[in-house]
């Protein structure tokens, strides 16, 4: 069904608009269709004890907030603010304490450079004058021994459906368990 569309983004727009027999509000997408986002919080979760675990990717421009600054924040971590995209907001709202994410340098470097952990769930963003957006707190867990570049991610067939590859503008993204394992392996955490 997706093949008749130019790209997955076109199909998603059609699905979400409810056109051509696609998805309508409250309905699931057709079988075999992975949106890569939207339903991500349910799609990426895996059981951990009695809870569920999801993986994420946090993008930051090194000139604004770098991995070194995140590490310097220590165990207390820092807030992840400034997100002004509604889809990214939904991802932040889905995050739970203890879930992990990749720290990705965008614009300069374009690479996954470390792992972070969510240490405080979604709460209002003090920098948002409209009061519509929020943030989570994260702390640095560890640096990747080898940064995983965007080019390496795009070249890897296991990561072909990763949101970073297909919707690179989204500042906070879900990561599947398979994608998490593959990027960790490429980064030397094997």
TrEMBL record:
InterPro entries named in the record: 5hmC_binding, EVE_domain, PUA-like_sf, THYN1-like_EVE
SUPFAM superfamilies: PUA domain-like (SSF88697)
Domain named EVE: residues: 54-185
Transmembrane segments: none
Signal peptide, first to last residue: none
Gene3D superfamilies with a match to the protein in the record: ph1033 like domains (3.10.590.10)
The protein's name in its UniProt record: EVE domain-containing protein
């Amino acid at each position: 069904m997706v093949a008749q569309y130019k790209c997955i983004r076109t199909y998603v727009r059609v699905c979400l608009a409810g056109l051509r027999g696609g998805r309508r509000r409250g309905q699931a997408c057709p079988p075999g269709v992975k949106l890569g986002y939207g339903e991500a919080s349910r799609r990426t979760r895996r059981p951990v004890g009695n809870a569920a675990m999801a993986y994420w990717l946090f993008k930051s421009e090194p000139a604004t907030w770098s991995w070194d600054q995140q590490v310097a924040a220590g165990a207390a971590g820092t807030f992840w603010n400034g997100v002004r995209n509604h889809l990214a907001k939904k991802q932040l709202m889905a995050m739970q304490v203890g879930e992990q994410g990749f720290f990705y340098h965008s614009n300069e470097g374009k690479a996954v450079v470390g792992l972070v952990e969510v240490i405080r769930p979604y709460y209002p963003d003090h920098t948002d004058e409209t009061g519509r957006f929020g943030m989570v707190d994260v702390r640095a867990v560890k640096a990747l021994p080898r940064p995983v570049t965007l080019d390496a991610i795009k070249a890897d067939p296991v990561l072909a459906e990763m949101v970073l590859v297909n919707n690179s503008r989204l500042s906070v993204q879900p990561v599947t368990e398979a994608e998490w394992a593959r990027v960790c392996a490429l980064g030397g955490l094997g």
